[in-house]
Amino acid sequence: MISTADADVAALALSLGLPTVDLDETWVDSQLLQRITRVFAERRLVLPLHRGPDGRVHVAMANPQDQDLLSELESSLAASVRPFMASAEAIRRSIYRHFDLAAFARDLLRDARPAKTSATNLGLELDPSQLSRKLRDGGAAPYVELLNALLLQ
Fold first, then answer.
1. Which of 100, 128, 133, 144 is buried most deeply by CB count within 10 Å?
2. Contact 108, 146 (CB under 8 A)
3. What is the structure's pLDDT at 30?
4. Is beta strand 81-85 parallel, antiparallel or unpaired with respect to 57-61?
């Protein structure tokens, strides 16, 4: 079922000729997140997503008509920006998920020690009790963030 907010965003995006984005289904490049602050993302209701095939950074925005914001994003991201519309609430949820869990994954990996498990197989050695506690207390979707962090190492 489509919410009223999502229907309003879709209608506005159609009238502006802009694409919409489902933030629950879109990959977010953590390196792009490091180029803006969480406070900036929350105040301006923006979230850099990833680079498109043309090199432009796809950015979820609640107000893609704000030319000053687009210029500021291009400066911060050091790239041209392609705006995608999303509801303010969806952007807030995604900011929480990506900014909070990135810190959780860094904290978790700080306690990891490289361990050579065989001549050709390298792994990470984690304290199982600490891992269980952090995964239990980590908020929304900690397993996804942990997996992303491990893949990026």
1. 100
2. yes
3. 86
4. parallel
Contact by Cβ (8 Å): 50, 61: no
- pLDDT 10s digits, 36-46: 999 999 999 99
pLDDT at 147: 63
Structure tokens at 86: 């999303």
Distance from C-alpha of 4 to C-alpha of 134, rounded to nearest angstrom: 36
Give the number of other CB atoms < 10 A from CB of residue 129. Answer: 8
Question: What does the alpha-carbon distance between residue 126 and residue 113 come to, in Å, rounded to a whole number?
Answer: 7
Helices (H), 35-100: 38-44, 67-77, 88-95
| 78 in Cβ contact with 67 (< 8 Å) | no
**How many beta carbons lie within 10 A of that of residue 25, not counting itself?**
6
- Cα–Cα distance, 29 to 118 (Å, whole number): 32
Maximum C-alpha span of the chain: 59
What single-letter amino acid sits at 65?
Answer: Q
Q: Give the H or E element holding residue 114.
A: strand 113-116
